[in-house]
Amino acid sequence: MSNGKTVMIPLLIEKYLRQYSDPAHPLSIMDMQKLLEETGRKAERRTIYASLEALKENGETIHMVKKDRKTGYYMERAFMQEEIFLLCSDLSDSTALSETTITTMQEKLKSLLSVHEQKQVPSLPPFVAAHQSIDLLPSIHLLLDAIASTRPITFRYFDLDCYRQRVYRKNTYRMVPYAIASQNGKYYCILYSFTHRDFGNYRIDKMDDIVVEEKTVPSVPFNLADHMRTSFQMYHGHSQTVTCRFDLSFAGYVYDHFATKDIIISHVDDTGFTASLRTAVTPTLISWIMQFHDRIEVLEPVQLKQQLFTHGKQIYDQYRKEFNDESEN
Q1: What integer is the mean pLDDT of 66-70?
Q2: Residue 329 to residues 182, 317, 318: CA-CA distances in angstroms?
Q3: Looking at the predicted structure, is the pLDDT value of residue 2 above 80?
Q4: Sign, CA torsion 92/177/159/288
Q5: How far is CA 121 from each of CA 76, 84, 126, 230, rounded to the nearest angstrom?
Q6: Residue 127 pLDDT greater than 80, yes or no
Q7: Collapsing DSSP states into helix, strand and coil, what is residue 169?
Q8: Is the predicted pLDDT of residue 234 greater than 50, yes or no?
Q9: CB 178: neighbour CB atoms within 10 A?
Q10: How far apart are CA 310 and CA 284, in angstroms?
Q11: Which residues pair with 171 in a beta bridge?
């Protein structure tokens, strides 16, 4: 056997172990010999043993097991079958990727398993109602590069009107990205503003024309865990339908706070629009509605209107005496 063919044997053994072996399907020495013969190569048992030892010395974990009175070998993988399934399932619900990218990434993940295990992972098509046609991977690639080197970026930012058309803000932003975080299926870039000298969250799917500058800037103190605790809010609890009348300028806020699949707009006119939302009625939601009381009118359910009335009356009663006394003086 030529030296070239001999050198290839450990590489082929590694390929066969990755492709065909798992705890339920170990490869015997004879199995590996047969696979080698299919490529026109022959190897003695001691050559295969030497190849297995070389792979172990190179850091691969190879297990020897006895199955059906035969000794076999399988390679330990970075991910178990159930872990690949969960990752593929999460990808199916992603709102950051196109259908094509989701399918491609799922196939890449499955390729980390043996051919036998791949067959046991069910196909998980993208959830059409959740995914979007815009693929965030190119933007995330740029942002990660800027984060790693503390380089500023410039970008344009847009909101959505009630017809889901883009309305770009007038200014071009220049900030420094520090982290990427996800919340409620949305991906945010956490950016430091030179103007405000503070951090803010910007939806990556609403950032456009991102350009990474060449020069780096000094970093400022930043703790992602602390920022997440103080900057993001979630709506936990039992979901129900909430119907509201919104000011026309409020469309972008609605799309920001609720998943698109949970919004049904039933009426639009010159001053506002009516939308039904699937959400949990929580203190966070009530506070959000009260904060924008001049742009939101709750129509249904009655129970939510009652809660808003009760909260409003409590606040009124709390400050009524103080301001009544001031008016009398």
Answers
A1: 84
A2: 52, 19, 19
A3: no
A4: positive
A5: 18, 8, 15, 39
A6: no
A7: coil
A8: no
A9: 20
A10: 15
A11: none
